[in-house]
Amino acid sequence: MLKKRVILHVGLPKAGSTFLQRGVFPRLRDVYDLNTRDPEALDALIACFRAAEWRQDQARKIVDYLTARITEPILVISWEGFAGHPLNGFRANETYATRLKELFPAATVLLVVRRQDAFLESAYRQCLHNYHSQTVRGFLNLTGDGFGAAQPDRRAANVDVRAIDFLAMARRYAALFGQPSVSVLALEQLVKDREGFVARVLAATGTTLASDIDFARRENRGYSLISSRIAMVLNRFVHTRNNPWGIIPNQPFRRFLEPRAARSRFFHILFAISVRISLRYFLQNVVDRLIYIDARFIDRATRQRIMDLHRDSNAALDREFAVGLAPFGYY
Predict the structure, then answer these.
(1) Are residues 197 and 314 located together in one domain of the fold?
(2) Which of 237, 232, 239, 280 is nearest to 135 (CA)?
(3) What is the pLDDT of residue 155?
(4) Are 67 and 204 part of one and the same domain?
(5) Is residue 58 domain-shared with residue 173, that is, in the same domain?
């Protein structure tokens, strides 16, 4: 068993994870941030979780390895995938949470949520990044009667809006780790008051900063309005694993070049060229740098329907975990 204080940042995806992973956790005092200090160990641990069969023995070996190696009193493990994937209703969360409890029974859990309408819009943007071309109505399974169940179709990304329930997730962690060990924050708190949000992270984790945070850096900006429209038209023609007949090249030869890039400067140059031959790279680094107009995909009426659907559970989340959601329209 790991004889360190463990902080588990479990997501959500699309809720400030990159900011925490790059901007905050590496700057905590007396903390071993697994993501930056030993990314190979983190990848190996994640692979144990994602395997069809739980690789418990292998995961425990990784924990033993960390026990023997690190000298800092606090270990931070951050992976937004612990929350599960929104396209399947966070189905893996219950399994992952149980496995985390087996490995780190006394951990502190940090969960960052985001208004469901904004969360879903960000998830839709990500689908455009991943070369889907589904309309936003299709993505939300929106009909005149409400929101339908998700349809399992890799070629047309879609989600069950009703399953984006953060209360169930928070209660699950509280039942496993104890409610005092679970802290829930809101991304909107970061947007409104960056220093205040970081202060809440520090209070929740019982840590302090060893160096200043660069708040000017913006992480993972989504496509602009122009790039989004282009992507919706051209994504269906991009060559991907799910669309092998696509005519637009997408990082050609990457699988061949990537393992060789570290061993040869020649292959390193070819790899650097390869990863730039993609529609995503062109849109993000050419179109969006020339002109950036923020995109809004979900109309006001649909946003209201989404939030009405989750109003009661969001209010209960706020009461039970003292998040401070009221000023941000969660309920």
Answers:
(1) yes
(2) 232
(3) 67
(4) yes
(5) yes
Average pLDDT, the chain: 92
For residue 152, what pLDDT band results from cuts at 50, 70 and 90? confident
Task: Report how far residue 70's alpha carbon sits from residue 53's, in angstroms, rounded to the nearest whole number.
Answer: 28
Same domain, 229 and 205: no
Q: Which residues span the domain enclosing 53?
A: 5-116+161-219+304-328
Burial class from Cβ neighbours inside 10 Å (0-12, 13-18, 19+) for residue 156 reads middle
User: How high is the pLDDT of residue 218?
Assistant: 65
Total number of domains constituting the chain: 2
217 pLDDT exceeds 80?
Answer: no
178 and 268 fall within a common domain: no
CB atoms within 10 A of CB 139: 24
177 shares a domain with 265: no
The DSSP string of 88-134 is GTTTTHHHHHHHHHHH-TT-EEEEEE--HHHHHHHHHHHHHHTT---
Determine the Cα–Cα distance for residues 245 and 240; give it in Å rounded to an integer: 8
Q: Average pLDDT for residues 277-300, to the nearest whole number?
A: 93
Considering the domain architecture, whether residues 63 and 173 belong to the same structural domain is answered as yes
Question: Which residues on adjacent β-strands are paired with residue 6?
Answer: 75
Mean pLDDT computed over 141-157 = 82
Q: Per the structure block, which two tokens stand in for 36?
A: 């930056």
Q: Which pLDDT belongs to residue 153?
A: 66
Distance between CA 251 and CA 276 in Å, rounded? 7
- Looking at residue 262, its pLDDT comes to 84
Cα separation, 117 vs 330, whole angstroms: 10
What residues contact 179, with CB distance under 8 A and at least 6 apart?
320, 321
Across the range 112-118, mean pLDDT stands at 97
Is the dihedral angle over the CA atoms 67, 102, 81, 171 positive or is it negative?
A: negative
pLDDT at 143: 87
* Residue showing tokens 């071993």: 32
Task: Give the confidence band of 52 by pLDDT, cuts at 50, 70, 90.
Answer: confident
H or E element, residue 75? strand 74-78
Q: Which residues pair with 209 in a beta bridge?
A: 28
Q: Per the domain annotation, does 56 fall within a domain?
A: yes
